[in-house]
Amino acid sequence: MTDKQLSAQEAELYDRQIRLWGIESQERLRASNVLLIGVRGLGSEIAKNILLSGINSLIILDDGIVTEEEQHVNFLINRESIGKKIAEEVLIKAQALNPLVKLTADTSDPSTKDAKFFEKFTIVVATRIKVDLLLKINRICRSSNVKLIFGDVLGSFGYSVSDFLVHDYCEDQLKLAGKKRAYDGSAAKPENETVRVKSQIVFPELNKVLILPNTKQSVEHIKKVKRRNEYFFLMLILLDFRNRQNRNPEVSHKEKDIAVLQNIKAEVLDLYGVDHNKLDDSIFELVFGEVVPVCAVLGGVIAQEIIKGVSKKEVPLNNVFLFDPVRYCGKEETIA
């Protein structure tokens, strides 16, 4: 048995999902090595789902400390964890989800990692980092043929952005049978069949998708995208806020933070030539903290995209997913 082949124990444990997406896809998952940057509310949900999927290894990279607020939104830690390194504290509960996965905690600052660190992974999953660091990691990943997906939950709003490079995949499609005649001349019952279709998506580099004010980059290609979801701009506003403030909006600074968000909104919408009424200021009331059910939903979506990216089975989201904080539904946007 090679390292990529499933053992009898793994075949039994993953039996249901093997029936769902096939042995070949499961073996790809079994051989994959995943890096997860940030294991807070959203990160813990992503970790849970990909551990259960049957990957080979997961490194959790987070230099944060467990706070009292954190223990209310992260099911992988408990009250005794407050004040300790969060990456180390999640290990016990996380490992119990699937003892077959090699699980490691890294308490380093993600910004200190060099190119060699990232090139050993199959896919990098990033949360809660600034755009400049994200784009740096994306350049490294592209040079090493490593896929990347980035996401966040802020209040009731959430999003993900994928760069799966040149992604080849296959999907099962139902082929409808034509009408046939039986030997006696009567109409025979047509039999539909499932066929496997191969396709390809070329993903843009993230610096062509996440363009913020003061970056001196052209946004003309994004201006051409019809019916752009207003929450795409909310995502950019929140990313720019993090870049400037080195944090997410906080309830303890709510009035001040909303004023900053309003100023950034004007800059972002002016950059893209969008009417300021497209995004109402009242939406900023919904972007504080991490709403646990939204973490669960988006964590499931991102984990599913990771599985698609690694297994090369089914159509991945191309390339932005936005979770509506008002209607509680998601929408795919193809940008650049």
UniProtKB/TrEMBL annotation:
Family as reported in the entry's similarity comment: Belongs to the ubiquitin-activating E1 family.
InterPro entries in alphabetical order: ThiF/MoeB/HesA, ThiF_NAD_FAD-bd, Ubiquitin-activating_enz
THIF-type NAD/FAD binding fold domain boundaries: 14-325
Descriptive protein name: THIF-type NAD/FAD binding fold domain-containing protein
Lineage: Eukaryota, Metazoa, Ecdysozoa, Arthropoda, Hexapoda
Top-rank taxon, per record: Eukaryota
